[in-house]
Amino acid sequence: MAPRLAAARAVAGRAWARRPAGGRFAAGVFAAAVVLAGGMGLGFQAALPSLLPSRLDWRATTALLERDVRRGDALVVSPAWAERVRMIAPRGLRVLASSRPASDAAPFGAAATELEGVRRVWLVSLSGAPGFSWAPELELLARSAAPEPPLRVGELQITRFELSHPDLPLATLGDAFAGARVELGGAPCAADGPRFRCAASRSEVEVESAVVDVQGVPRPCLLVKVAGEAAPIRITFPAVRVGRSLRGNAGLAAAPEGDAVGSLPLTIAVRVAGEEAAAVQVEGAGWPTYRVDTGRWAGERHPVSLELVAPADRAVCLQAVTLP
Amino acid sequence: MSPSSASAPGVDTDAGRRARRPWTPRRIALAWGAAAFLATAALSSGPGISREEASVLAEAGAGPAGAGPTRLRPPLPAALSRVTEAVAVRVGLPHLVGYRLAPALCTGLLAALLALLAAAVAGAPAAVIAPALVLFAPRLLHPLLQAGPAAPGAALAVATVFAYRRAVLARARAARLAAAAAAGVLFGLALAVQLEALALLAAFVLHAGFLALRRSVRPADPEPGPVPGEVPTVRPHPRSAWTALAAMLVLGPLLAVALWPGLWADPVGRLRDALLAIPGDAPAASLGAPLAVTVLALPASLVVAFAGGLAHALARLLARTTDARERQDRLLLVVAAVAPLAAAQAGLVPRGPGPGPWLASFPFLAALAAQAAVAAGRALWPAHARPIRLALAAVAIAPGLTGAIHAWPDLGASWGELAGGAPGAASRGLPRHHGEVSPLLLREIAARARTGARVRWAATPPAALAVLAADGRVRPDLALAASLDECDIAVVPVSGGPRQDEFQIWAALRTRSPVAGVFLDEVPLAWVYARPGAWR
User: Fold this and answer.
1) Looking at the predicted complex, does its ipTM rise above 0.95?
2) CATH number (domain holding residue A198)
3) What pLDDT digit, counting tens, does each position of B501-531 carry?
4) Does residue B123 sit at the A interface (CB-CB below 8 Å)?
5) Does some domain include residue A48?
6) Are residues A200 and A95 in the same domain?
7) Do the Cβ atoms of B440 and B518 come closer than 8 Å?
8) Do A101 and B305 touch (CB under 8 A)?
9) Up-side HSE of residue B396: CA atoms within 13 Å toward CB?
10) For residue B329, what is the enclosing H or E element?
């Protein structure tokens, strides 16, 4: 090994000693770098179409999904920007879309609660695309029984994951919003079409069920907007199936020109059948989770209330489900 | 007579005359100017209208009343577009082409001036190369095609630098004063186009300061050769740079205020308001962001060429053998290239999704790169310097040219290979465009929307819609939906930012499945959603 190293050193030394004069050497390096970068650019452009799926690949994927999709299935695409999948997905199949790139913390560009109510996940991957990440695949592998081998459809790779412990809520409070009662400081708010509006001396409140952009992810939630001063709001849902716990998330809705600036804290009190189950402090940026023990009422139907003091001039997106 | 003897000395034929007629810098500049103008004018109907351009169009009189500018800014870009549109419509050209003829003219001027500047600092071969390095990159061509301050701002930046250089190098007093006055006037025009031109002033102060310092430290620099076309009489005046600066400081603001009626009532107060409004509401750029965006948005070959040009200039600045004029020129190009980038880093330029806001850097980077290519050709193989430098230039511009053809008309959505193209950029969360509705989508809507459908154009400014409708690119029977609840079809640009508008459309139309979309390398740029029956 040592003689070879010595020989290599000698060759390198001779080459270095015979290198062209300064200006010529620098010119050579510059020319080589330009040629290399130009070649790389042309090569990248030539190769890119072959790394991306064709229309035929997408059509074949549609046919496959239409044949095999069941109720309780969801579809995840990786990378998250490959949203053509929303055009081709069969009706009724939930597509977990995000406008943000995936990260290790949020593999679908979203939190794990995205998989609420999902038993099986179809992962459609563009594994050759620039910026592709294995994070969603690894996350799904960790949550599922052994998946079937991926099916290759042109440049698309389709894998089906059966979740080993599907997260199946008993009830989603947002779904019962049409029959809910909203109060501001104890006074009931009037229903105005799909939303509730009310005003106190120093605050105006609007509560509606909406799909809201929170950190780049579409969140179906209760959107609470307060103008003026912070105000105490109670939202009561009648006859909710209560389980052992109630889990929810809260976050600030994005402003039209950028992400919501700042983070919560927000105190949420949960009342079941008129009794306070717990009050929790929800803190942090993004989509923090809160959980309240409701074991005393498990298996029964009761009115459930969420009480919060919504911050002024912010739009808070609030979500809650009851879990068995 | 054999063909070869036709151009023999003394024989006056067409071929002989052509052979004797050299490609002088002026002819090269003229050719570049004409070619750049014709090409950009021909391409001007292609790209969609961004939010920034729409606000210029609104200022130029497009769109409904009240759709005017939302912030105080210099009036010249809109005024130029208004004039060219009025002329163009009379000769039967579309309105959008009319508005964009002003930037096309400025792009022609930019190409010609850049060729002249490159020739002045590095000879005629550099004049051939430099404009191509700017015009053949999709992300640099895109702002040059759009109505707004980018093209006139870049052209005036080059013109001001050119005039300042002449003022610094002029030997006769009259020539020096005339060039200084020209620099002042051009600087005033540049300010009347965009207030970001103030960065140029900082560049000139640096340049003049460095020259003064250098003279005080090393008075025995090699004597420069004569300026081509000038008879060497006396050395340039030692304070010529300061004369030009004084002219710019006096004439520039005066002319800018004179051309900007909005400032007349309270020039100081309103100018301060306009300066404070430049960055807009967007969050501040993180350290190195403009440089990173430049590296990711441009083809790697251009990045290497620009970096090589900059390194070459810095090396020559430090070399002992460099004469005074060469040192002056290189320093001028370096500070003029760096100043807009530094202004962008400091948050003194409007924030946009690409390198457009600091476009004024690139002509100077291109001149430096052209200079480096010429020097490399000469150093590598002196006997065949010409084919080497042309080959280098061709390799540097080829990826940009092919990238522009591939991304057309969505030039603003393309990213360089260092970002991984549009897919890699989307994976990194980089912006896709600035709110443009792609013309490809307009064609699709015209072909497939139900007769009389009510369309909701989410995030598309009224001025942009008005121009597109006036040009017949929006079908006349399609109505504008007043609210989300009553729309049949919704058009949503996907710029990479928050998508609240789109999510509201999901709720209103009760669907999350688009019926059509525009993609660049599978990255969606815009969606169309429709109620059942509204899309054929």
Assistant:
1) no
2) 2.60.120.380
3) 888 898 888 888 999 999 999 999 999 999 9
4) no
5) no
6) no
7) yes
8) no
9) 31
10) helix B324-345
How many A×B Cβ pairs under 8 Å? 175
Among A residues 293-322, those touching chain B with beta carbons less than 8 Å apart:
none
Asked if B469 and A181 count as a contact pair (C-beta separation under 8 A), the reply is no
Q: What is the pLDDT of residues B431-468, one digit of tens each?
A: 888 878 778 888 899 999 999 999 998 888 889 999 99
The reply to whether A125 falls in a domain is: yes
Suggest the residue from A58, A81, A223 to mutate for an interface test with chain B (most B CBs closer than 10 A): A81
pLDDT in tens, A145-196: 877 789 999 999 999 999 888 888 899 998 888 888 998 888 888 888 778 9
Q: Is B163 on the interface with A (CB under 8 A)?
A: no
HSE-up (13 A, CA, CB side) for residue A223: 22
pLDDT tens profile B374-386 = 999 998 888 888 8
With contacts defined as CB-CB under 8 Å, which chain A residues touch B517? 84, 87
The answer to whether residue A67 sits within a structural domain is yes
User: Do B403 and A41 lie within an 8 Å CB cutoff?
Assistant: yes
Host domain of residue A201? 171-323
Amino acid at residue number B335: V
Interfacial A residues in 49-88 facing B (CB < 8 Å): 49, 52-53, 79, 81-84, 86-87
- Residue B314 has, within 13 A of its CA and on its CB side, a CA count of 11
Task: List the single best residue of A51, A83, A124, A225 to mutate versus B (max B Cβ within 10 A).
Answer: A83
Report which secondary-structure segment, H or E, holds A224: strand A217-228
Pick from A86, A100, A212: which is nearest to B503 by CB?
A212
- B408 at the A interface (CB within 8 A)? no
Enter the DSSP assignment of B5. Answer: G
> d(Cα A270, Cα B255) in Å, to the nearest integer?
66
